[in-house]
Design a protein that fits this description.
Elements lengths: L3 E6 L5 H12 L2 E4 H10 L3 H12 L5 H10 L8 E4 L5 H12 L4 E7 L5 H6 L1 E4 L5 E3 L18 E2 L6 H24 L3 E5 L4 H13 L1
Parallel strand pairs: 1-3, 1-4, 2-3, 4-8
Antiparallel strand pairs: 5-6, 5-7
Helix pairs in contact: 1-8, 2-3, 5-7
This protein binds adenosine monophosphate.
The site of adenosine monophosphate has 18 residues, from helix 2 and helix 3.
């Protein structure tokens, strides 16, 4: 049985890109708390209205709200998940174990990368509004500007991928990641991979973690 996989890493470290491949090739289900929250904003739900300003500013939404949303969207009985964007602090790491994972086998993978590389990656990130394919205007540009190579969908920029919000998001990451890493290290579940490698090599390293 494959482990439930917890992807840890700064915004822009490549978690989303790799998660898409794990879903396509290894039958994982992708659970991104950022995606779940953006869905709430798009549907103009009460929850969406509550979190919009916080997300636009690049700050963290409160733990209870995100945990509840996560729990409502996962069924560990019959699925293997990639947790992407959760946990974001020590409290969330503890809650993920006690409320969601319980006795399920799990591993955490830290995408190690020099944070100074990430601001440019994030401001140049574009996502297909049709199929979700992720592009980067510097390293993986679409052949036709603004159009997805895969499905012809429109490429959009996330609202929080602007220079100022990116700065806050990276700062928040720096201030909150250490207790999360310590939690998984202390429980013998932490693997570290070099996320500055090409995506193929990162995927190879990730696959090895799921098989170990
Ligand atoms: P992401 O898509 O993971 O980069 O998340 C985008 C934004 O959603 C973050 O900047 C936070 O405002 C919010 N968010 C996502 N996941 C969490 C979480 N686990 N805890 C708190 N806020 C979160």
């Amino acid at each position: 049985m494959k482990p439930q996989l917890i992807l840890l890493g700064a915004p822009g470290s490549g978690k989303g890109t790799q998660a898409a491949r794990l879903v396509a090739e290894l039958d994982y289900n992708h659970l991104s708390t950022g995606d779940l929250l953006r869905k709430e904003i798009k549907s103009e739900s009460e929850l969406g209205k509550k979190v919009q300003g916080i997300m636009d500013a690049g700050k963290l939404v409160d733990d209870d709200t995100v945990l509840e949303l996560l729990n409502a969207n996962c069924d560990l009985g019959s699925n293997v998940y990639i947790f992407d964007g959760f946990p974001r602090n020590g409290e969330q790491a503890k809650a993920l174990d006690s409320v969601v994972l319980k006795d399920a086998k799990s591993k955490a993978v830290y995408f190690e990368i020099d944070l100074d590389m990430l601001a440019a990656r994030l401001t140049n990130r574009r996502t297909c509004s049709g199929c979700g394919e992720i592009y980067n205007l510097l390293s993986k540009a679409p052949s036709k500007e603004g159009v997805c190579d895969k499905c012809g969908g429109e490429l959009t920029q996330r609202k929080d991928d602007n220079e100022e919000t990116v700065k806050t998001r990276l700062q928040v990451f720096k201030e909150t990641i250490d207790p999360v890493l310590a939690h998984y290290e202390a429980t013998g579940r932490l693997a570290r991979i070099d996320a500055s490698q090409d995506p193929e090599s990162v995927f190879g390293a990730l696959k090895a973690v799921t098989e170990a």
